[in-house]
Amino acid sequence: MRILILSDIHANLTALEAALTKAAGRYDAAVCLGDIVGYGPDPAEVSEKIRKVAKSSIRGNHDKAVAGIMSTEDFNPVAKAAVDWTRSQMSPEQLKWLAELPQGPKESEGIVLVHGAFQDEDEYVFTPAQALEGLLDSSASVTFFGHTHHQGGFAYLDNNLEVLQIRPRANESFAPLRIEPNKRYLLNPGSIGQPRDADPRAAFAVADLENQVVEFWRVPYEIAKVQSRMRSAGLPEPLIQRLEFGR
Ligand code: ZN
I need a labelling partner for 72 at 20 to 30 A (CA). Which of 5, 27, 160, 169 fits? Predict the structure, then answer.
């Protein structure tokens, strides 16, 4: 079973379609780690697409905020403006679907999905110390997380925690990670719709645990098209500009 792992799509349909086109034929089932909407110009279309494509989805903090089940008090003014605009673009039925997305951790297809940290879906995992509880507490040896929009992750064996610098270079499409039988992994596929790890290409992962490999992919997409839709929608300029830098 090859699993396509999508995360942090953030209402960017052009990036999602580029990723799905590249991944076509390379996976048997797709899963989504949340932040389906928020920031980008296509919340209704992206929600419909994920509903169709993903076998399991969990919610992210932006999904909760847009669905009205989480306050936007902690959001910065730019993110909050995007939340309000996003809500205005979605049907009551789509908002209900968002509101009913399950909370991680959730086991699906032999892996565990979380949006943020293992014990707190809204918490960021950047450091080995933050990764440790997820690595130890997860019910599967391979857990996928999102939220940071940074592709890569962590591996654990015998009290030794390793940071995995695993990303395709600018001239490569993917970088494979060999999964070792005794190790535990906490892996981030990166963000489809708003990467923040200095590579503006859409990021995703394909896990094939029977063959002990996880591939980390990057695919270019037409950023200018998304930016022009964002400008027409009146979305905040910092959100528009960051797409081309991947920051
Ligand atoms: Zn996100």
Answer: 5
DSSP-derived letter for residue 207 is: E
Segment 102-124 mean pLDDT: 95
Q: How far is the CA of 213 from the centre of ligand 1 (A)?
A: 25
* Rounded distance from Cα 8 to ligand 1 centre (Å): 4
Is 13 inside a domain boundary? Answer: yes
> What is the distance in A from the centroid of ligand 1 to the CA of 162?
24
**Distance in Å, CA 10 to ligand 1 centroid:** 7
pLDDT in tens, 138-180: 999 999 999 999 999 999 999 999 999 999 999 999 999 999 9
CATH number of domain containing 173: 3.60.21.10
**Phi and psi (nearest 5°) for 185?**
-130, 140
